[in-house]
Amino acid sequence: MQLDLSSLTSVRDFVRHFILKKRKLNVLINNAAIKLSSRDLAAKPTNDKLEVTMATNHIGPFLLTHLLLDYLITAAHMTGDARIVNVTCSHHDNEQYSGVSELDTNNFQLTKEGTFSSQQAYKNSKLCNVLFTYQLADSLQGTGVIVNSVNPGMVPSTQLDSKASKLTRCFRLFCLHYLLRCAKFTQTKRQAGKQVALLATSDEYKGLSGNYYENGVPERSSIESYDKELRQKVWNISRKLAGLSKDDGFDEISLSSIV
């Protein structure tokens, strides 16, 4: 099924087609992400007038998750287990990387002059993945749906840096992927995928919700990600940008919201 997470229309069309298939949904993995080139010095808007990194990495998955919640909750009631896995990375932590700062909710899409950088846009979107995980996990308590985020490690062989220069891509692929893999500093796609798949399917994680995982074990995420006021602000901003009308609860999330 085709899905462009940078487009809110595409997300809604995807869900309409999913409904027609009349399938049960036990697992949702929000994995797709993009990162612009360091040469991009200004925010790139989508057709929905959203900054493309935030739209693809957070707002699109945020909307998709909300529109599919009814199906996940129903599956959890039927089988006792349904799961949402949000794939993030260590770059969500501004204290670990130079050149990025904390998320400014008054400049959520980095549209203020001189504030955009591909690194900051990516960092903000990956932080939102973690904030969304924690807030959603709290909201879904008692439904049988568990929500976790995972940092599968550095995986240079993916297409995440497809917008980067040829020199940067070669460096990541040959130096980081092959040389540093021996030191277990980087992960192969199979190794990273296994972490995500186990979190989505293994009985080891059944009933465990609201956690941030690295290498299969819960770890501390960034200091910023534990700011409950920031979580709520990002939740409200995301709902508005995604076109969801209410700030609290899921009463409005039903089939009528997408048809």
TrEMBL record:
<protein>
    <submittedName>
        <fullName>Uncharacterized protein</fullName>
    </submittedName>
</protein>
<dbReference type="InterPro" id="IPR002347">
    <property type="entry name" value="SDR_fam"/>
</dbReference>
<dbReference type="GO" id="GO:0016491">
    <property type="term" value="F:oxidoreductase activity"/>
</dbReference>
<dbReference type="InterPro" id="IPR036291">
    <property type="entry name" value="NAD(P)-bd_dom_sf"/>
</dbReference>
<dbReference type="Pfam" id="PF00106">
    <property type="entry name" value="adh_short"/>
</dbReference>
<keyword id="KW-0560">Oxidoreductase</keyword>
<comment type="similarity">
    <text>Belongs to the short-chain dehydrogenases/reductases (SDR) family.</text>
</comment>
